[in-house]
Structure formats: C-alpha cells, structure tokens
Amino acid sequence: MKAKKRKSNRSLRANLRSPGRPPVLHRAERWPFWEAIAQGYSSEDAAAIAGVSQPVGSRWFRECGGMPPSHLAPSAPEPTGRYLSFSEREQIALARARGDGVRAIARLLGRSASTISRELRRNAATRGGGFDYRAHTAQWHADRAAKRPKPAKLVTNPALRLYVQDRLAGSIATPGGKTLAGPQVQWKGRRHGRRQSRRWSRAWSPEQIANRLLIDFPEDTSMRISHEAIYQALYVQGRGALRRELTACLRTGRALRVPRERARNRGKSFVTPEVLISERPACIEDRAVPGHWEGDLILGLASSAIGTLVERTTRYAMLLHLPPQPGHGHQPREKHGPALAGHGGEAVRDAITQAMSSLPEQLRRSLTWDQGAEMSQHVRLSIDTGLEVYFCDPQSPWQRGTNENTNGLLRQYFPKGTDLSAHRPSDLQAVALALNTRPRKTLGWRTPAEAFNELLRSAQRNSVATTS
User: Fold this and answer.
1) How confident is the model at residue 1 (pLDDT cuts 50, 70, 90)?
2) Distance separating alpha carbons of residues 295 and 319, to the nearest angstrom
3) Which residues fall within 8 angstroms of residue 373, CB to CB, at 6 or more apart?
4) Which of 288, 294, 259, 248 is nearest to 391 (CA)?
5) What is the pLDDT of residues 97-114, one digit of tens each?
6) Cβ of 40: how many Cβ atoms within 10 Å?
7) How much is the pTM?
8) What is the per-residue burial (b if ≥16 Cβ within 10 Å, else e) of 245-257?
C-alpha cells in the first residue's frame, strides 16, 4: 500500500478532493450540440444531432442558461493541433494496452516523445495507486487543467451585488413609503404564464441597472458591471452570485435565455417563401387598387377570439364570429382534431369564406395575415374565395398597420381580459356598423361605409358594362 501511495505522489498533480465522476462526453462531442442550438434547433433536436439522449441535451442547455459557453460558442476558434485531442488519447490508451513504449507511441502519432511522456504522467488515473492511462480520464484531467476560472464580480463585490438585487427584486412602495406585498407567487423554475400573477418588484432591467451605476456612482469604478454579466449571473448555474428565482422579476419572466436564431425561426411550416409579404405586388402598398384586405384575431379569456378583416383602401371592417366548439373547456382536445376554442384553421377558413362570398370578385384580391396557426388552411381559402394570401414577417405587426389600428379601436368594445365568446353575431355586426359609420380623417371625413358602398356601385357598373 505504501508503494502505491508513493507512485501516486510521483504524479505531477497536487492532492485534491475528487471532483466527481469523469464526464462521458467532452468538448468535441458538445460542439455539434451548440452548433445546432445556434442554428435554431430545439435542445431535443440538437441532442439528436450530437448523438446524445434528449435528457442530456436538456441538461446541457439548462446548465448553461440557454447560451453556449465561450469555448463552445460558434464564434470560438476550433481546437488547433497544438494540444492532444481525445482521439489521440484513445490511441495512446490502446498503445499502452499493447505494451508499446513512449517513443513508439510518439512515432505513431507524429508527436514528440516528451509530449507523450508528460501526458502519461500528468493525466494518468492514479486513484488505484498506479499510473493507469484511460482516455476519458486523461481528457477529463486535461479539460480541468485548461480552465481559467474567474470569480464573478457580483461574488467578490457585496455592495454591487446588493445594488443589483435591490433593483431587480426590491419591493414596490406607495408614495408614502408603505411597502406593498403583491400576490404570492411560487417559484417553479420555469417561466410564469402570461395570464398568471407575477411577482411585484422594482424590476429594473439589467441594462437599466448597468447604465444607472454610472450616474449613482460616478467616481467609484468598482461599482461597474455590464448587463450581460447580470444575465449570466441569473441564467448560468454555478455562478453563485444571484438567485435564479430573480429571473421571475425580469419582464420576460424567462428562466432560460432564448437563442436569437431560435426566435428568428419561429415561422410556421405552412408559410412558404412565395406567400411572404416580400412577394406581395407593389400596387397593394399604395392603396390605389381596392380589394386588398388585412386580417387578424383579437383574443380574450378562455381562448376566445374574434376575427377582424379590414379593407386597405376604405378601412371598411368586417368581424368574424368564432364561437367555441362543443366540449371546449370540459373535455380534452382530440389529437389532430379541430381546435375546440373555435379559431382553428378550418373554423377561420370557413368564416372568411362566408364573409367574402357576398363581395364581387373585384373586391376579393388579396389578404395579408400574420403567421398564426389559424391560417394553416390558406391554400384552400385561396381556392374557395380567389384571395391571394400573404403572410407578414415574424414579429412585424407594422406590416399590417391598417388592421392593427382597427384592432385598437375594437378594444373599446372588446377589452383585453374579457370573454369574447359571450358576444353574438348580431353584437359583432352592431360594433362593425359603429366603426364603419364613423368619419375618418384619412378618407376626407367620409365614413368607411360610404367609401366602400361607392366601390360596390363602381364594381356593379363595371360588371354590367362587361356583360352588355
């Protein structure tokens, strides 16, 4: 036993507590995972690309806060041939098992004999008292030695940490100084729902905190931190500076970061390049030709919705009644069945078809919508109505400015947070009539109904002239 301890002491590593079991996968295996994340794949799909299980991919994503470590980021330089790779260490382990000497292994790998000698002594597995060489253990030791850990600034500066925490999670108070507790919110480690109670706090954003430090402490350079460092302290496990529960105080409420490319790739599968708004004819933009419409849904409680259609030239509005299907809220939805909330693809397609069927062909030219799942039946809609359907870019509501303005006016009658399924079709017709008979400055103080009726009469005259 003493001889074994002497062999262990001859290794060039200092005595240390066991850092745990060596990982199964190293840098080379994790690189494809983070490359896939950067391309917009989910953690499950990225795990399949990297050849690991879905739980492993989800754990990697969660531990790193949704963003790759600096040495695994796509912008990081790839490993050079200066250091031994994992595949070379596997060859060393096989050669040692065959009984090859140091110089024979060096000739096999094209390396210096001193490089192989140092590798066998530095990264050997010495737990058993000898110098057994295993590729995984050697790579583990090499990865740990290559780390250059730097303590987080929020850990080493208590005053700065208190300042940041107070601005993130400090209680709100009345002008008289009385603290308001707000709702009791249980931390679940995930993002809170949009309609659920949120924690009441001062909730400055990390960028506001970072820039306010320059004003509050103009002479104290130790009170400086970037907003990115605050985000990493919140999202990355093991930073130890800020509690992850404070992510509930962020405006987004996210417990993990969302890679930028993933947000860009949120378009629906039924939206192909030829139906994007960039392919829409330029004559639609100037509103000179009537018959081009914009549409959207306004949403309420319990997944209730009302469809809106607005003609771009006259601002004439039509409202679509989208009642919930029988069983909504009482029975689970059948897989691949219709949306019980009433605003699925088939329901919206039928409602638009019914609304457009009474209009002449000259006033049914195109329809511009956002990339919502309710328009998944747009191909069938084009066949039934003759409308050319175009989709806006993701997160670009200004590309349907006329419809967005009309939806804002409709919120006077259908406020947010109310049940829209309580309104009957006659109620929607009355509200549409109120909007369409309201004078508009952009129409020379005519009403949308007057401008639209003029287009209808013109279309009827043109059809009579054509037939005669």
Assistant:
1) very low
2) 10
3) 268, 344, 345
4) 294
5) 999 999 999 999 999 999
6) 16
7) 0.54
8) bbbbbbeebbbbb
